[in-house]
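Example 9 (inverse folding). The structure is encoded as follows.
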């Protein structure tokens, strides 16, 4: 069946009017900033920047929350899988949702997919990080010796 432009327009208006959860700070208070949250973009930084940042956050806070919208979701999943497959992290929670926002290019309201993955330190995390940190200076020395 075919809908008219007018019907499609009304449907878009109804969708645009659906409630969207927005965090609004209470006047006189500071908004809660989550110190262990990484909002991933697939255009700003390379993949291993986020992997290394997640390791550092897990060292400091025992867990890290990886968050992304739209096309960056695959990057978050890849980061989580790298950390899990290397024995550094365990999956604590995965949350998916949609978020309403205004499209910069088209100037209209769109729904974007969102994912949050919370990872905690694995039992072997500290041992693996200590071993990796001990091996890093040794690898640098070997690299310098090979140049000579």
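The amino acid assigned to each position is listed next.
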């Amino acid at each position: 069946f075919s809908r008219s432009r007018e019907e499609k327009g009304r449907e878009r208006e109804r969708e645009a009017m659906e409630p969207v959860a927005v965090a609004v700070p209470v006047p006189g208070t500071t908004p809660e900033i989550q110190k262990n949250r990484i909002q991933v973009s697939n255009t700003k930084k390379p993949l291993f920047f986020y992997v290394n940042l997640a390791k550092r956050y897990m060292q400091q806070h025992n867990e890290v929350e990886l968050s992304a919208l739209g096309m960056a979701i695959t990057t978050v999943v890849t980061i989580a899988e790298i950390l899990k497959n290397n024995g550094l992290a365990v999956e604590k929670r995965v949350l998916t949702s949609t978020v309403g926002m205004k499209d910069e290019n088209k100037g209209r309201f769109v729904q974007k997919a969102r994912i949050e993955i919370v990872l905690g330190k694995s039992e072997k995390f500290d041992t693996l990080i200590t071993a990796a940190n001990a091996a890093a200076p040794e690898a640098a020395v070997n690299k310098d010796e090979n140049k000579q």
